Structure formats: structure tokens, C-alpha cells
Amino acid sequence: MNSSIKATPVNKSYIDIDEVNLQSTVLTAIFWLEGIMMPTVGIPGLLGNVVTTVILRKSELDLKPVFRVLVTSLLVWDSICLLLTLVIFSLPRVWETYNLYTLPRLLPHILPFAQISLTASIYTTLAVAIERFICVCKPHTKISFRTGLLITVFIFVFSLSINGPRFFEYELKEIYVQSYIAYPDGELHQSENKSVLVPFPTEMRRHPIYSQVSTVMSILLLHLVPLISLCYLNCAIFLAIRARRHILTSSGRQRRELVVATVLTVIVLVFLLCHSLKFFINFVELWAVIKDLSPQSVWSPRMNVVVSVSHLLISVNCSTNFIIYCCKDQRFRDTIWSMIMSSFKANRDNGNNLVDLHQARSNPDSPGSPESPGTL
Fold first, then answer.
1. CA–CA dist 246, 328 (Å, integer)
2. What b/e sequence results for 79-102 when a residue is b if at least 16 CB atoms lie within 10 Å of its CB, and e otherwise?
3. pLDDT in the model for residue 205
């Protein structure tokens, strides 16, 4: 439900020029991080995820069905998270009309979906790591394709359930803002009043108990449990690969499993690096909630830049799967090259057929021409 409130007018006749310069520097940094760098990383990342999803379906890669379904699910969740991140954080930096009038209406609805996709991406990464751990460290244990599908469904239901309350955290309110023009000497002059819709935290979101519980659950379920588990699994997989690489000379299937496990090790390392800053930000929020501190005492303008860097790192994490596969998996590169050459050959053959058809139609004496005596 929309409600109307009036913003408190500014009574100061002069402003702090240093504060204005700091805000200007922060806004410039955020613009470059979210408005320029994130799309530069995110748009190619979306295309790379689509290409990787297509290539993973190829039998030439010799991947187990359960691994294929889990990695495909990871790519889908990464793509959704990346797309919503660009819509929420990047597009408003370069499109003022969208930022003022469209995003406020969308934000209460699409922000929970972004959280759901991020949660699903985190736990799908954990599921892939567990599958690789079993495959490398316990090679005689078999996981069926059906089990992989059940895992993906469970992750979706789990992500939806723990992020369900986020759909009720924000509501739209109409505010009237008095805009001012600042002259070089620092004097302010009122310009005009504007009516805009702004998402405001609901009463549930502002409740201290809800804030404490949601922050603790976020740190526990989205950071501590996945990060500690991934660190352990990654170390175990790495040690197993190093211990067994020199003895696996006869079994091509086992050598292939080690190559895939190496790819996953790099993916997990990138994941840990890109999510570490977000863990720090959530820990600061938890500390502020526990100490009952005001947001102004903790959330300085420079922290907004830190948050933007975190958004950029999350985009990098969701965009690098294609690059990692290209760098670490020879069969993946060979499959890409084979697809490119097949597409090029098909286009060339189609072009030659069109040329032959055009020549046949333009030559009445050709046996294949409709006017030719050789045609019945």
C-alpha cells in the first residue's frame, strides 16, 4: 500500500563544502564501479554462461550426468543473479529516469528474487563441491542423475523458504522533496518541490528482533556454513588431486575426473575471494545490530563504496565460469573450436548453395534451370 509523507525541509543556509566534495567523490566511485565496470563484466558473463550451458550438453566433454545437471543449475542461478544485479545496481547509475520512477516500483519485488538466486548459487556451488569430493576421494560411490535433480529442487525450495520474508521488508511511500541549488559560496536556494516514490522499510523490517535474527541467519547460512564447508572440501580435493595425479596413468576416466575437479577447485577459489568482502559487510551490520548502534555511526559514505566493490565482485564471480573452463579444460576448448568450425562450415555450404542456385536460375541453358529442356 502506498502512503504519502513529506520530507523534512532543510533549514541550513550554508553547507559544508568538504562534505559535498566527499559525497561527490563517493558518487563518482560508485558510478564507475556499478555503472561502468559491472556491465563491462556482467554482459559478457551472461553470454559466457549461455555458451557454457550449451557446451555442457555435449557428450564430447565426458561429464557425469549428475555433475552436468548441477553445473547447469549453477550457471542458471548465476545468470539470474547477474541479470538482477545489473537491473538493481547498474542500470540506475546510467539512466536517471529509470532510477527515479521505475526502480522504486520494482525494488520491493525483485530484490527478494536477487537474494533467492544468490542463495541458490551459493548452495549449488557447495553441492558441486560435495559431488566432486565424493568423486575424487570416494571414487566407488555413485550418485545418480535423479539425485542431482532432487538436489537442485531442494536448493530452490530452501532458498525460497529462507528468503520468503524479504518480500515483506519494503513498501512504497510517496514523498515530497524540496530541491536546492548550491552556489559556489555555499549558499542554498530553493528550486522546486518534487513528488517521488521511495521504498521504505516496513515495520517488520525495522523491528529489532527481526533485524537481529535475519542478520544472524544471513551470516550463518549464507557465509559461515558455505565458506567453511567449501574451504574444507576444496582443500581435501586439492590434496587428493596432488596425491593421486602421478599414479593415475592408466585410467582415462579417472584422469578426466581429476581435470574436472581441478576446474571446480578454481571456481571455488574465485567464489571464496569474491564473497569475502560481502561477509565483512554483513559482519559489520551484525555488529551494529548487536550493539544497537545508529546506521550513521557505522555506515559512512566510504562504506557505500565498499558495498559497490562487493557488488562488482559478486558480478565477477557469476561471470567467470566460462573463462575458468576455457583455461583449465582442454576438452572444453576443443568443443568450442569444433562448434565454431561446424558453424563456419555450415554457413559456407549454405552460401555456396545459394550461389549455385542463383547461377542456375540466371543460366537458361543449365540442366537444373526451369527453362532448360532437361527439366520436365
1. 18
2. bbbbbbbbbbbbbbbeeeeeeeee
3. 87
What DSSP character marks residue 88? I
The type of residue at 353 is N
Residue 368 CA to residue 374 CA, distance in Å, equals: 7
- DSSP-derived secondary structure for 243-291: HHTTT-SS-HHHHHHHHHHHHHHHHHHHHHHHHHHHHHHHHHHHHHHHT
Give the separation between CA 374 and CA 120, rounded to whole angstroms: 66
The torsion of the CA quartet 119, 285, 306, 198, rounded to 10 degrees, works out to: 80
d(CA 219, CA 275): 12
pLDDT of residue 168: 92
Flag residues of the chain having pLDDT under 50: 1-14, 249-250, 366, 368-376
Query: Distance from first CA to last CA of the chain, Å, rounded?
Result: 75
pLDDT value for 207: 85
